[in-house]
Amino acid sequence: MNMDALHMLMPIAGIPLYWPGLIILGFGVGIIGGFFGMGGAWMVTPGLNILGFPMAFAIGTDVTHMAGKSLISTMRHAKFGNVDYKLGIIMMFGTVTGFECGAQLVMFLEKVGSINFYVRWAYVVLLTLIAWTVFSDVAKRRKKEREAVAMGKTLDAQATGLEWHKTLHKINIPPMITFKTAGIRCSMWLPVMVSLFTGTLAGFLGIGGGLICMPALIYLIGCPTHVAVGTDLFNVAVSGLYGAATYSYKGRVELLAALVMLVGAAVGAQIGTVATKYVKGYGIRIFFGLAVICCGISVILKLVGASFAQVKALTDTTATVMILSVVSLMSLYILIEFIKGVREERRQSFAKQAKAARA
Amino acid sequence: MSTLRAKLFGLLTVLFLIPSRLLAEGKISNEVLVADTRHLHGLEAWWGNLYNDSRVQFALLTIIVIPTSGVILGLIADQFMKRLGIDLKKRSLSEH
Which of A40, A102, A216, A241 is the most interior residue, by most CB within 10 Å? Predict the structure, then answer.
């Protein structure tokens, strides 16, 4: 390291990088990943670009850091009982097959020559649908709450707004499986078909899948929010590890940068995961919906830039600034919730100890 | 026994099925990259040379180092969280 103290020479890419920036980026994405159950590739790539990372290394380094970060979050979620391994493993089969179908579809569209158009618009439609689903679910649950209050009752904590999963659970094609952690019993074919569908979409769009898999686990499978986050992270950790292997074999991983990011992500992932203890499931859903909307707007800005060359620089910069601002604001919100929750938990713990001492 | 079966099932999944998932994620160009190790010293020089000499060893070390570092950093962060007085074993709230 012969740069100034705040820059670190990357041995493979051969460029000096501002290392506090890597730690901050890892910290922010760690918080959001642990909280929402996403890998967060859509947030990391623009961040690495701003730090001056060559594109060839950005994806591989991101996937490698994602494997370590998701493992940390999965370990923590597992201790809270938020990971349904059986469901995760079954869904992995459907997802992988679906990815292959999505990739084949991409290859077909490449031959036709209209791949960019279809992929970008499919992305916009999908993100709009996810955001609509999340917010209509929240609105329906609030309506149920108001109705319960009007009748002088309290709404069951397990109650949900949208109940598509209840209809899907009526499919009783054997074998029927009980997923203890998720607290659901359904046909094995339900998670297989849902993951096949989400995997096809993820393969077609060329994204990690957490953004699609998390809402699918909630709305189609019927997982409680926290279990959906934990189970999704388990999948991201396993696939991220394979990603680290394949990208490093192709020479596109800067391990030093991934490790520096992991230092920030280790703390961030713990904070994000522990914060799920203090935020209600529906709070997580609302913020997930907001993240999806911002992701959608950034894709639309890129679409506009691709269509009108004269505004491309402006729209690309706006998209990057917007994504990084959203990441910063959401990380800040989760951090504040974490601090408030820890304070409250410590206060209760001290009160309990004081009571025991008096007795 | 069922845990063992689940683990074997998971291992088979990782070995045979995950590759296609990641191949679908993005295209990597076939150009060969070489690290410039002339200005590197010590561990960095060794790492750069390993990258140039054997991509298999480079990949193997990467996938060993990342989860190991993840687990170590996770455990350190665990200790820090415990010192803050957070109950890291249970989440009392269980709702959708």
Answer: A40
Q: Which of A70, A13, A11, A75 has the alpha carbon at shortest distance from A37?
A: A70
Task: Enter the tokens of residue A189.
Answer: 């074919």
* Rounded average pLDDT over A65-84: 86
Query: Residue A279 burial (CB < 10 Å; 0-12/13-18/19+)?
Result: buried
Predicted confidence at residue A192, as pLDDT, reads 92
What is residue A187's predicted lDDT score, i.e. its pLDDT? 92
Alpha-carbon distance B5 to nearest alpha carbon in chain A (angstroms): 11
Pairing label, strands A7-9, A176-179: unpaired
Cβ(A273)–Cβ(A76) under 8 Å?
yes
- Rounded to whole angstroms, the Cα distance separating A49 from A58 reads 7
| pLDDT tens by residue, A232-276 | 888 888 877 877 888 888 888 899 999 999 999 888 888 888 888
Q: Considering only CB atoms, which chain B residues are within 8 Å of A85?
A: 6, 10
Q: How far apart are CA A112 and CA A123, in angstroms?
A: 19
